[in-house]
Amino acid sequence: MGRIFIATLGKGRGTWGHVARLIQEEQWDKILLVSNEFCQENFKPAKEVSWVLVNSRTGFEAIKDTIKTELPEGELLVSLISGIGKEHMALLAALKEAGRDYKIITLTGAGTKTY
After folding, report:
1. Cα–Cα distance measured from residue 115 to residue 106, given in angstroms and rounded to the nearest whole number
2. What is the DSSP string of 24-47?
């Protein structure tokens, strides 16, 4: 159990800073990044993370099922700021299919905010 951060991370490096700050500025019991091998090799987070590697060319169901098998127990806080729609939809479908509640987390001008 604990506080779990789950984020999609796309090849577009413009959103990496947002994800990196959420990783660095918050206390997490586990960090799970849904991404690809390119991002795993090039994104250097300040804390230890676990990776769910997906290939965006793979079918939607395969991506969803891969994510679903990796969902940890605990309070889930999700960021969709980075990545592509197919990964976002697969993560949301995996959460729904697994019957998991979650909150959206983002950075704002006033700090971190959850919904």
Report:
1. 9
2. HHS--SEEEEEE-HHHHHH---SS
Distance between CA atoms of residues 99 and 18, nearest Å: 27
Task: Kindly state the tokens that stand for 100.
Answer: 């998991």
Query: Phi/psi at 36 (nearest 5 deg)?
Result: -130, 175
**How do the domains of the chain map onto residue ranges?**
3-114
| CATH code for the domain defined by 3-114 | 3.40.50.10770
Closest CA to 6 of 38, 39, 36, 29: 29
- Per residue in 44-76, pLDDT (tens digit) is 999 999 999 999 999 999 999 999 999 999 999
Q: In this structure, are residues 29 and 74 in contact, taking their beta carbons and an 8 Å threshold?
A: yes
**What does the block give as tokens for 1?**
């159990």
Q: Which amino acid is at 99?
A: G
